[in-house]
Design goal:
This protein is an alpha+beta fold. Helix content is about 20%, strand content about 20%.
């Protein structure tokens, strides 16, 4: 079975043993077999790609076409434009994920390329990482991190049902969110710290896949 070919920067390939990889190099995951990608989660968990999974950088132009294993799908039903965006002319399926790989070939999914934000000094900020931490904090049902100028703001839909059960009013919820912000900022790098948390009174609008429609919220 053919070994996967990987490249994480313009000039650097990864050997089979991973010795050429510089930790924290960023790459996009482009694969024609998505099964193993779904096993890769966030910074806390990881998975090693198998020989069915090929990882490549979008700038790379000299990769072979996908081999006889075939693509993960033929395309979107009656949606040629969406199919062309997801599957390129060489047959590569573009997952849209961004990730890192360490020297042991562990893949860490950082977030979606279309959601990535740029800090004031060009740092890559992955809102999903911030949201995952915030969503585990007290009284938070769901959240979305947006960028306003050079500041990051979290929009939060609180657990109003729980607040009602334990008798917490609106002001107390606001104070809890401010404490959540302070606690979260203690574990975030300086360029990813939240400047404010805004309370959202209703659940965020979702796609049919139950993902938040990020483009609605600014």
């Amino acid at each position: 079975m053919r070994k996967p070919r990987r490249k994480v920067s313009k000039d650097t390939y990864i050997n089979d043993d991973g010795t050429e990889l510089h930790k924290k190099n960023l790459f996009r995951i482009e694969s024609y077999h998505n099964q193993e990608i779904r096993k890769c989660h966030n910074e806390e968990t990881s998975s090693k790609p198998t020989s069915y999974l090929h990882i490549m950088a979008l700038s790379l132009s000299d990769f072979n076409n996908p081999d006889s294993h075939g693509n993960v799908m033929l395309g979107y039903y009656k949606n040629e434009e969406a199919t062309e965006q997801a599957i390129d002319k060489n047959g590569w399926y573009h997952t849209g994920d961004l990730g890192t790989m360490d020297r042991l070939d562990n893949v860490f999914i950082k977030g979606r390329s279309k959601n990535m934000l740029l800090g004031s000094n060009g740092q890559n900020i992955y809102p999903e990482e911030i949201e995952d931490k915030l969503n585990s904090m007290p009284m938070v049902i769901e959240s979305i991190v947006v960028q306003r100028g050079e500041k990051l703001v979290a929009l939060v839909y609180p657990d109003y049902e729980e607040a009602k059960t334990i008798g917490i009013n609106e002001m107390e919820i606001k104070n809890m969110m401010e404490q959540n912000r302070k606690n979260l900022n203690e574990v975030l790098p300086s360029y990813a710290k939240l400047s404010d948390i805004e309370i959202h009174k209703e659940e965020f609008e979702k796609t049919p896949k139950k993902s938040i429609k990020r483009y609605i919220y600014k």
